């Protein structure tokens, strides 16, 4: 596997680390449980990093030196792809011929490297985009910069050269065919998974609302969150694409209405602009809800599940999501989700069953949806039960088995080509 621009060992929720990191790590672990050996190549970002790190039995992360360790933005990385490719090819040269059976690349930068490696080794190239430039540009957040033409061209090349393309949802598969002229026969839908053992509602009986409420208060006390009143959680990178500012504006709209204003917990770090979190806090002050917004840095997944359990609602207001891993994890934890009706969130969240899908990004609309749901304990409890039920269809072992089948089909395509 190739993950050039972000390491699966990085903490998701800040910089360029997000759901893709979790995807690569958990898929690799699941593949290893089913007998595969996985080597993940990523760019070294510190001289202190070990060249090889074993993250699980059968899963190794290899750090490749390509360019300076620090100070490189993701948009600077195309200039380091040649150096990264050389490192990958050198690693393979120390193995016997035929060591790798398949190259699976993540994000278009990795696809460029994998294209050459797969051609050199004569093995199938399987690619997962995770996000698509044309789709992002079509749903650009206010103030966000469009993806450059170079990325679009790079994605077109990877699509043309891949023996198999993996989409997380049917909508993403349609985007690949419509916007990138992908061969439908080479596009496979494999939904990502959720660690259902880690992300769960906890020990409170699922059928007892009073017990769940007591458990939620106990977790809030442990996390130093308000015990009373509604708590809305946003977990992810603080950037225009993820739209945490929309939630702050929605709180401002609730305050103007004179009704109860929940506490918004923003669990994430800046991405793109180093001042993004401070700008969000300034927006909360301007909206008159500074005392209702709590910002905290991202946390390991073992602690993240506690935040999911502590929240009344998890909000995912993104302008675009290829899948929406936060929504899936929150639902597995038994917490209903209020999400934007875009991209993969349409597949992850079942409107009226596991959460609420909100059309558009109007703060007044979001204020109404959040306010109504927080005021209706019975509805929220029912959605929480439905959320856990919906999440049961998403397991990493199922994803790994389907991915192994994709690898086998890609091998046949490669042989035919």
Secondary-structure topology with pairs:
Layout: H1 19-33, E1 38-43, E2 52-56, E3 59-64, H2 81-93, E4 103-106, H3 107-121, E5 125-128, H4 133-138, H5 149-161, E6 164-167, H6 170-180, E7 187-189, H7 209-223, E8 231-235, H8 244-257, E9 263-267, H9 276-286, E10 293-296, H10 301-310, E11 313-316, H11 325-332, E12 337-340, H12 345-348, E13 355-358, H13 363-374, H14 377-391, H15 396-416
Parallel strand pairs: 1-3, 4-5, 5-6, 6-7, 8-9, 8-11, 9-10, 11-12, 12-13
Antiparallel strand pairs: 2-3
> Which class do the helix and strand fractions yield?
alpha/beta
Which regions contain 5 or more consecutive residues with pLDDT less than 50? Answer: none
Structure summary, number of beta strands: 13
- Please count the helical segments: 15
Order of strands in the sheet with most strands: 10-9-8-11-12-13
Q: How does the overall form come out from the CA principal axes?
A: globular
What would the average pLDDT be, to the nearest integer?
92
């Amino acid at each position: 596997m190739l993950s050039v621009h972000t390491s699966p060992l990085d903490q998701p929720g800040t910089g360029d680390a997000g759901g893709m990191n979790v995807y690569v790590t958990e898929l690799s672990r699941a593949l290893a449980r089913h007998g595969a050996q996985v080597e993940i190549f990523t760019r070294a970002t510190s001289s202190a990093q070990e060249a090889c790190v074993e993250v699980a039995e059968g899963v190794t992360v290899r750090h490749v030196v390509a360019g300076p360790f620090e100070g490189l933005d993701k948009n600077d990385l195309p200039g380091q792809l040649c150096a990264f490719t050389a490192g990958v090819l050198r690693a393979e040269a120390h193995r016997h011929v035929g060591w790798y059976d398949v190259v699976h690349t993540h994000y278009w930068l990795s696809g460029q490297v994998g294209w050459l490696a797969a051609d050199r080794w004569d093995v199938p190239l399987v690619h997962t985009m995770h996000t698509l430039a044309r789709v992002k540009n079509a749903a650009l957040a206010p103030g966000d910069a469009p993806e450059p033409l170079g990325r679009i061209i790079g994605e077109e090349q990877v699509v043309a050269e891949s023996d198999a393309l993996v989409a997380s949802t049917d909508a993403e598969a349609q985007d690949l065919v419509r916007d990138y002229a992908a061969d439908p026969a080479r596009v496979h839908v494999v939904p990502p998974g959720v660690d259902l053992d880690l992300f769960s509602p906890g020990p409170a009986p699922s059928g007892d609302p009073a017990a769940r409420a007591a458990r939620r208060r106990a977790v809030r006390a442990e996390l130093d969150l308000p015990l009373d009143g509604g708590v809305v959680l946003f977990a992810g990178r603080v950037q225009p694409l993820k739209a945490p500012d929309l939630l702050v504006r929605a709180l401002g709209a609730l305050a103007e209405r004179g009704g109860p204003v929940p506490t918004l917990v923003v669990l994430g770090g800046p991405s793109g602009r180093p001042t993004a979190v401070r700008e969000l806090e300034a927006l909360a002050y301007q909206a008159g809800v500074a005392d209702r917004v709590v910002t905290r840095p991202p946390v390991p997944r073992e602690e993240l599940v506690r935040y999911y359990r502590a929240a009344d609602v998890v909000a995912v207001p993104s302008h675009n999501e290829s899948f929406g891993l936060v929504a899936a994890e929150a639902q597995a934890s038994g917490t209903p989700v209020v999400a934007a009706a875009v991209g993969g969130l349409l597949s992850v969240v079942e409107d009226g069953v596991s959460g609420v899908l909100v059309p558009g990004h109007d703060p007044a609309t979001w204020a109404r949806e959040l306010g109504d749901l927080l005021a209706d304990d019975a509805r929220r409890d029912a959605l929480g039960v439905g959320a856990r039920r919906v999440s049961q269809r998403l397991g990493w072992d199922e994803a790994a088995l389907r991915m192994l089948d994709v690898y086998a089909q890609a091998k046949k395509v490669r042989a035919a080509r």
